[in-house]
Amino acid sequence: MLSRREIESYESQGYLHIPAVFTGRDICEMERDHEFMTRHWASSGQGWTGPWRKEYMDAATEKQSQLVAMHDLHFYAASWMQAVTHPRLVEAMGDLLGPNVELHHSTMHTKPPETGHPFPMHQDWAFYQHQDGRYVDVLVHLDDTRHENGEIRFLAGSHAQGALEHITCTPEGPCTPHLPTANYHLKETIPVPARRGDVVCFNIFTVHGSYVNRTSQPRRLVRLGYRDPENPQLGGQSHGRPGLMVRGHRPNPGGLHPAYSSEVGALDAFKAVPEPALVG
Ligand SMILES: O=C(O)CCC(=O)C(=O)O
After folding, report:
1. Which residues does a 6 A CB cutoff place in the pocket of ligand 1?
2. Is pTM, for the whole model, over 0.85?
3. What is the pLDDT of residues 7-19, one digit of tens each?
4. Assigned domain for 50 exists
């Protein structure tokens, strides 16, 4: 699916734009279900917290700025289950991650019109810590993006630094993880405008952010997270939850057995148990 040049570009820059992954009826159905989930499941709120808000937005914008969000769209709509397992996307993930690929999560981020929520510079590692860089985030575009509606922007090559310390607390209390605004500037990043149906991939350590949506239309993106199943999660979003294997299989070097009990929660799903429990 990907050329050697594209793979090398992802490896050196930490991001990659793949045009026209979703087309035709597929994207129309994803859009229809996105609208359904926005109306019936997503939450709308002020979005990420922290002192960065005052630097990214004037007082009036900051007051009005909203983010529409929800996790795991593929559990709520069949078109999104098909999207996360889309053969071309899965093949591309195989090119970046290797023979075995596990879906970790999907997350809707919609910037409403006029004052739609900007994102401060951060690494996604701060939200779902993994042991190493074998994790690719994928932004599925339902709308064309450009500067005016807050396209995604990257600090090229920043993934090479590995995990960075994020601000998670201020004198006023805890805040959403972000990098210090004095050291990380959106204006120094590379914009990656994309078209509806494109995806933009990036490494879990790549520093990124985006500006306010100033247009009269919402800017709709959905992030999908894929990892090598042998890259252990250490904390954060969906920690301990086994994901969907979309390519290859889950290796089991430790000889673990999935616990089998109606009382076992997701956190216990892959504990070492002495032998497989009887299946009743
Ligand atoms: O939607 C955006 O503009 C940025 C999203 C983002 O930073 C993320 O998904 O990690």
Report:
1. 109, 119, 124, 150, 152, 208, 210, 221, 223
2. yes
3. 999 999 999 999 9
4. yes
